[in-house]
Amino acid sequence: MWIGVVSLFPGMFEAVTGFGVTGRAVSQGLLEIELWNPRDYATDRHRTVDDRPYGGGPGMLMKVDTLRQAIHAAREQGERRSHAPPKVVYLSPQGRPLDQRGVQQLAASGPLVLVAGRYEGIDERVVESDIDEEVSIGDYVLSGGELPAMVLIDAAARLVPGVLGHQGSAVEDSFSDGLLDCPHYTRPETIDGRRVPDVLLSGNHEMIRRWRLKQSLGRTWLRRPELLQSQALNAEQRELLEAFIAEHAD
Ligand SMILES: Nc1nonc1C(=O)N[C@@H]1CC[C@H](O)C1
């Protein structure tokens, strides 16, 4: 998977290219991150990359010409590398809330160029002319779009075949099937008197699978019931959820 990134702070992306699952994916050639810095296109003595907002008000916006040159360069490289025009995604609170389904859609849509804003954001006409999709990682305001871009990179990279040691991990993750994840346990068998559920020590893989599914369904019902509204539960899932609810009836 090739992802181009436009950012004033390219060094921040060492957090995904140099560590963990995503870092390994990069070293294995399963994930490629290329960075473009609008400051590299600044021609004035101060290498200006911000500009004042029309209409006044606090804060600055990203300077249009340097930003657009960086976006165009990233998009051209993406087309060269993937022989398809990249989807250009701008991370902003005004975007579509990102969820696992959205990650799956973006990961499957081919090469991506992620535009990380700084200051108060970018000129609306750049959004209209150069951005294909605005995406938000949550209803809060950050100081830059770099962390949202890295959130998207991490989530999308996990879906690339071969990136996760055990491909089942991506499927069993929270949200991959639209449900919250089940509880997990590891050694020791007892912590402060709290024991690992016996079923997980039974070695009965079918019972363990059903227990984990029941816990996922039950947790989703308890903590995020709205997620169940968009789920078409199969017969087994309905049976397990009903059993969980019955066990939790007051
Ligand atoms: N929430 C979010 N999801 O994606 N991006 C954000 C976010 O807060 N962006 C900041 C807003 C102004 C600054 O330019 C960057």
TrEMBL record:
EC number(s) stated in the UniProt entry for this protein? 2.1.1.228
Reactions accelerated catalytically: guanosine(37) in tRNA + S-adenosyl-L-methionine = N(1)-methylguanosine(37) in tRNA + S-adenosyl-L-homocysteine + H(+)
Main location, first listed in the record = cytoplasm
Location(s), subcellular = Cytoplasm
- What top-tier enzyme class does this entry carry? transferase
- List, alphabetically, the CDD domains matched: TrmD-like
| Entry keyword S-adenosyl-L-methionine | yes
Limits of the tRNA methyltransferase TRMD/TRM10-type domain: 1-229
Record key words, sorted: Cytoplasm, Methyltransferase, S-adenosyl-L-methionine, Transferase, tRNA processing
For S-adenosyl-L-methionine, which residues are the binding ones?
117, 137-142
Tell me if Transferase is a UniProt keyword of this record: yes
In terms of superkingdom, the source organism counts as Bacteria
Return the NCBIfam families for the record. PRK00026.1, trmD
Family per record: Belongs to the RNA methyltransferase TrmD family.
What does this gene product do?
Specifically methylates guanosine-37 in various tRNAs.
Q: How does it assemble?
A: Homodimer.
Name of the protein this chain belongs to: tRNA (guanine-N(1)-)-methyltransferase
What species was this sequence derived from?
Modicisalibacter zincidurans
